[in-house]
Design goal:
- The protein is mainly alpha-helical.
- It has one domain.
- The protein is 67% helix and 3% strand.
- It is built from 9 helices and 2 strands; from the N terminus they run ααααβαααβαα.
- It has a two-stranded antiparallel sheet with strand order 1-2.
- The longest helix has 30 residues.
- The protein is globular and about 55 Å long.
- The chain starts with a helix and ends in a 6-residue tail after the last helix.
- InterPro entries: CHP02444 (IPR012659).
- Pfam families: DUF2390.
């Protein structure tokens, strides 16, 4: 069960505001893009977990599974389509002002799609317990390693790149996870 003080703090600090602040921290943008492109990590979900961590909370894995699928569909059907379209116009935009303006508009729409996705993550986390099962819990013990904690929000310790003997992550991905964990450690932790 969630500590009510932590839940109140979560309500008072919107995910979008947290994401804007966190994303501008040193090296975070590059780390997010690396994890998105090389490890297929959903950056919106990554920011969602970082926001929860900031408040001493984590999502319960069983409750998270359904919402993760809904958010993944949004990323594939909306945000991903916009991102691909923007990328396809990159070359033409360098020589054609009309295409450059169109590409800028698509980039703005992509950002709005990301914001909507983050707002849906936040709404899910803040749904009243009466209307749905408990989704969040206090982090039982602050992890010594925020990087490892963050990775475990995405991957079971018996699965994917984190498994012992499963092979090494590319150094760039490992470094990107490290950046995310180091920046999370810089936040004052919730009590």
């Amino acid at each position: 069960m969630c500590n009510s003080t932590r839940l109140v703090a979560l309500k008072q600090n919107p995910l979008w505001d947290f994401a804007l602040d966190f994303y501008t921290r040193p090296e975070v943008e590059a780390a997010c893009l690396c994890l998105q492109e090389q490890a297929q990590v959903d950056v919106c979900e990554l920011l969602f977990h970082a926001w929860l961590y900031r408040h001493g909370l984590e999502a319960k894995p069983d409750a998270l599974a359904n919402e993760r699928q809904a958010r993944l569909r949004w990323q594939q059907e909306v945000t991903g389509v916009l991102r691909e379209l923007r990328g396809a116009l990159k070359g033409q935009a360098q020589t054609n002002n009309g295409v450059a303006q169109l590409r800028a508009t698509i980039k703005e729409a992509e950002l709005l799609a990301e914001r909507e996705n983050l707002q849906r993550w936040q709404q899910w986390a803040l749904l009243p317990e009466i209307s749905s099962p408990e989704r969040l819990k206090n982090i039982a013990q602050w992890p010594c390693n925020a990087t490892r904690w963050l990775q475990l929000q995405f991957f079971s310790p018996h699965f994917h790149l984190l498994s012992e003997g499963a092979g090494e992550e590319p150094l760039t991905v490992k470094s990107a996870w490290g950046v995310m964990g180091n920046q999370l450690d810089r936040f004052t932790r919730a009590r």
